[in-house]
Here is the input.
Amino acid sequence: MKQPSTNDQSFEAEADKKLVAQALFDRTELPVIRQRGETALFRLLPIAGGDTGQSNVVALFLLGLYDGQRFPFDLTELRRLDRQLLVDCLSLLEMDAYAQREVHHFVEDGSAVFEVMASRLS
Here is the structure.
């Protein structure tokens, strides 16, 4: 039987390191990302229902996460937000990147909530 080469062993060791790193991320960082994102979502939703320029940016951002094909979002619009709103949007975006479900599924009757938001802006 052929012995594994140094390259094979190196590849396997690197793959093992990546698996361990991913498991550590999943166990320690991912829950924090999800909690921050959910908290941000529930702070952003009432803002999105307002009638200020920032409210419109937040609503458009949320709709972009809900259905980016239907509601494309220009990221430069985030420059119009106060710092805390920007941080909340970024926290929600990070959660959405790792989410096991779409953003509107975190909200009771989420599809209806987001569709009302969409109709308000059109």
Q: What stands out?
A: The chain has a mean pLDDT of 92.
